[in-house]
Amino acid sequence: MLSIENLTMSVRDHQILRGVSVEVAEGETVGLVGESGSGKSTTARAALRILPDGAEVSGNVTVCGHDATNSVAVREVRRTLAAMIFQEPRSVLNPVRRIGDSAAERLVYVHGMPKSEARQRISELFVEVGLKDVDRLLRCYPHQLSGGMLQRVVIAAALSITPRLLLADEATSALDVTTQAEVLALLRRLQREREMGVLFITHDLRLAAAYCDRVYVMKEGSIVDHQKGDAIFVNPTQQYTKALADAVPLLPERDSTVRA
Ligand SMILES: Nc1ncnc2c1ncn2[C@@H]1O[C@H](COP(=O)(O)OP(=O)(O)OP(=O)(O)O)[C@@H](O)[C@H]1O
């Protein structure tokens, strides 16, 4: 589904990715974990050839058998095969466009679907991702929706092309724990129904361990560890992974002798 092989990238002599190799199979959820600035987002973006100005890139990327390093082939990949959910929904939705128009944009402008049909498809997807009062929502602007609702909107928009591969970049990090759990359950359900491969990017090792089949750990532009999700927290093989695991703050146990 996704194969990234020895991906290296530098911008103005600053090396950002150093020989990154990542695989995601059909129906698999694969975590990409690491501290801020380790290169997780850059890896996902580079996989879809979303590159910063002046980037020099080498290595191989294939998505569903298409060579995603080829600028023509990657257009088809982005059009029909792969979708990305970006970190902050408010940063990707135009604040002065109605939610319905933004969410239907890809179907209308990329797929040439008539507006009324695209709107209908988006309404159905809004229901599928658990949004209510859909007709009203379609006419709203981003500032009128909560973070959790906006995250569902961008998930619906990403799913509108029925992707085979979903790149979810900190898709739930900005949400409160209850909404995060709901959105994760939603992604899991949709993934199973559609047999999608998911690259799940997070800085949260505990979340990745619980949610992903396999986890890659990144540090300073390199993959430094790779294990099954349920093993990485219990038995980190690399010192860096252990440090990440140890860095998870644990709340002190409540003193049972203290009464409210
Ligand atoms: N357009 C760019 N030009 C130059 N350097 C960049 C550019 N984009 C990212 N970088 C650098 O690449 C490195 C990796 O950034 P990236 O955003 O991929 O990390 P990340 O692991 O996703 O971090 P975070 O969790 O904070 O999003 C950082 O050092 C960042 O400063």
Write up this protein.
The chain has 260 residues and is of the alpha/beta class. It has a domain of 173 residues: P-loop containing nucleotide triphosphate hydrolases (Rossmann fold, 3-Layer(aba) Sandwich). The chain is built from eleven helices and ten strands. Strands 6-7-8-3-9-10 form a six-stranded mixed β-sheet, with helices on both faces. A four-stranded antiparallel β-sheet has the order 2-1-4-5, with helices on one face. Strand 9 and strand 10 form a beta hairpin. The longest helix has 18 residues. The C terminus is likely disordered. Adenosine-5'-triphosphate (ATP) binds next to strand 2 and helix 1. One of its GO terms (molecular function) is ATP binding. Belongs to the ABC transporter superfamily. This is ABC transporter ATP-binding protein.
Q: How far apart are the first and last residues' alpha carbons, in Å?
A: 54 Å
User: How large is the count of helical segments?
Assistant: 11
Quick one: overall form? globular
Structural class: alpha/beta
What's the total number of strands?
10
Give the neighbour order of strands across the main sheet.
6-7-8-3-9-10
Low-confidence stretches: 256-260
CATH class descriptor of the domain at 2-91 and 164-246 = Alpha Beta
Beta-strand content bin:
25-35%
Helix content: 40-55%
Major sheet size, sense and barrel closure? 6 strands, mixed
